[in-house]
Amino acid sequence: MPIIVLPIHLVNKIAAGEVIERPSSVVKELVENAIDAGATRIDVRLEDGGRRLISVADNGCGISGDDLALAFASHATSKIANEDDLFNIMTMGFRGEALASIASVSHAQMRSRRQDAAETGGYEVEAAGGEIGPVRPCAAGEGTTVTVRDLFCNTPARRKFLRTANTELGHASDHLARLALAHPTIAFSLAHNGKAIQALAATDSILQRVGDLFGADLAGALLPIVPRRGPVQLGGLLATVAAARASAKWQYFFLNKRFIRDRLLAHALREAYRGLLDPSLSPVAFVFLELPPSEVDVNVHPTKIEVRFRDGQAVYGELLAALRETLNKAELAPTARLSQAVDERSSPADQQRRESLRQALADFFKSSPAHQPGLEFPSASARGDELRRGPPGRPADPSPWATASPQERPSARAGQGEAPTIAPAPAGARPPAASPAAMQVDNTYIVSASQEGLLIIDQHALHERLIYNDLRRSLETGRLSGQRLLIPQGFRVTTAEADCLARHAELLERLGIEVAPFAPATWAVQQFPSMLIERGVDAGGFMRRLVDKLSDSDAAELSSASSLEPTSAGSVEPERLLSEVLEMLACQAAVKAGQPLAPAEIDALLARRQEAENASACPHGRPTVLRLTLRDLQRQFMRT
Ligand code: ADP
Ligand code: MG
After folding, report:
1. Is residue 124's pLDDT more than 70?
2. This prediction's pTM
3. Could you tell me the distance, in angstroms and rounded to a whole number, from the CA of residue 84 to the centre of ligand 2?
């Protein structure tokens, strides 16, 4: 074929392929335009997930009749005029290709009336499949309304990749949430098929906006990030360890009010929580960075979701410092206060918070090098209280937490007739000797003498592994036993997440979980695995994490399905998902680090140790048992 210059409608269609992936991309572009127009109220309406109709109405500055003729033209923009402007961008848009791209793959219409002009009426223009019609006067309120019908009507391949209406709605509402987070002073609404889905009132408080979007529970767990005011300005909100989620999608980074994804920033966040957070969980954060436009190139990605920092290391360093300072203040300092604040009136939420702090501290110390075998523990003849002393800074037994709440105490007090925390060894296993040589250290480790030397067991990791094995075994033969809740436990879900729950109905049933719609944006747990109930696991919180996990796995499947890579065998994915969910279950049900255990419980754990040995790592891949052989001891004491 000879070389030709492509006709402009084809160029636009190609550009649309990059910028307009699905209805949510249209929503993003149109809402960004409304924000650039200075709107204080933006209303988004979708029909059939955006396939049939997307409409975005704003009360911004509006467009004059003359300009309206150019709005759908390609490379037409009012936001930059020369090359210098490109390096000083203060608006969301600047490429002048969004409307042209949209109009090349849909039937689009724009109606507008300028705020300031003396013009009496408004104007409208239509564009379909790249053909732009004439500008006509029309009746219109102040501001602009763009309506996009039949998206991808002339690109059937794209249309085929669209998912169910609810999934597309979910994407659109995710994009809208990002924009709404960065612009709390703008009021937003979202409606689907004529039904109001979301209404966000304008506010000066980002915390308020987070609460309106994601619920008061999450907002209540957020700490203000200690602000930085150097060349890199940053602030925002950071969740406590207790509010961590099973998915990394609760990490929002904004640069100059633009939502971005950035490996470096995500790494700083993970780094800040290192040692405080279970590796299977992800921190929740809303980070807002402000940099002079000259310090960052936003023109490296068609949808601008990635940017290039001029000095990435400086941004990384500032962010990490701010996050660490925030966490240090909030997570470590209150321990002194906690020890005094132990009173009967503390609410379950307080107790939960205390429990999670305790967990965080235990994890922190667990990861500190002081616990290397051979360095930390004195010889076997050392006195127990010396062993119990624990790392510096840690209160001596009885720990202040031991009296925190009755539920937090291990229930297996011999002779009290309560269900044991750790199930006794199955029949046939070696009867647990009243092991005088086993003891709990730091309420976290069990140290036991054996013929080969010393064993140091991570109580949480071992218990978790045992429960995981038990769960696997029960699932081989049937499903987990569930128990009806007297009071159904609510948890928040978006429409897309509700869809996702419905898709995984079979998995939930196998797990003994029953959920149903309860109130707007809220589902309730009606039945929950007996084992988790016995262990006092909060059903609503657990479900929130499970929903994150399930929707993450669906998203992964989606992206692999739409890529050109050959997809793996269909049966592998559900298997992996099941394993991951079981790991989550086991982790929640297992005794925690920092939890005092009764001698009977220690014995029960030790008796079943062998069983876990073939896999001597907990499901998260951490070791469960460290062994100090006699030879090691001899070497340490220089007897060889
Ligand atoms: P860009 O946003 O990159 O400039 P677009 O194709 O999204 O390109 O929009 C083209 C132009 O149309 C904008 O530069 C702006 O002048 C005008 N425009 C689009 N949407 C609106 C709106 N909601 N209110 C006012 N002007 C708008
Ligand atoms: Mg734009």
Report:
1. yes
2. 0.64
3. 19
